[in-house]
Amino acid sequence: MDLTFKTEEGIFNYRVCAIILHENSILATKNEGTPYYYLPGGRVRLHETAESAIERELFEELGIRARILRPLWLNQGFFTEDVTGQRFHELCLYYLVDISDTTLLSQGRCFTRTEDDRQYLYQWLPLSGLKDEYLYPLFIKEKIHDLPQTLTILAEYE
Fold it and tell me: Which site among 22, 29, 35, 70 is 20 to 30 Å from 125 CA-CA?
């Protein structure tokens, strides 16, 4: 069971995301239902550690077994989703991930994958142009240029 629930005031999510960097670019994705990019990852399940969740999500989404280097951020996100208009309260742990022992780079700079009958577009977005990209969460556009050495707690209101 995913750690997400709906209330009259909005939706709560507990998620994990991967920060995957290569040649001054970050891997981002979007699906058929979203006009914006976001980072690979997903919801944590009940009785699952965040580390197990990110490993599972990367295998499900990208077919890789990556190595977690370290946690970067715990973001407390409060936002309204652009497409559905639903209000969210989201806790998301962002992990720096090493893909050097995987075949991910052989997919190219832009590729598609299918998961649960849904098509996902993955793209390596140059860090130098992130400020102009339709990418969530917004804090990534600035914080990606100065990665913390220890877990940092953030609160973002979008």
Answer: 70
Enumerate long-range contacts of 134-139, CB under 8 Å, 24 or more apart.
134/35, 134/36, 134/37, 135/28, 135/36, 135/37, 135/38, 136/36, 136/37, 136/38, 136/79, 137/38, 137/75, 137/77, 137/79, 137/92, 139/73, 139/75
Residue from 151, 134, 144, 150 nearest 36 by CA: 134
- Can you tell me whether residue 70 is helix, strand or coil? strand
Position 91 confidence tier, pLDDT thresholds 50, 70, 90: very high
Which pLDDT score is estimated for 32?
A: 87
Q: Please say whether the beta carbons of 35 and 83 come within 8 A.
A: yes
Q: What is the pTM of this model?
A: 0.95
Q: How far apart are CA 72 and CA 61, in angstroms?
A: 21
Sequence letter at residue 138: L
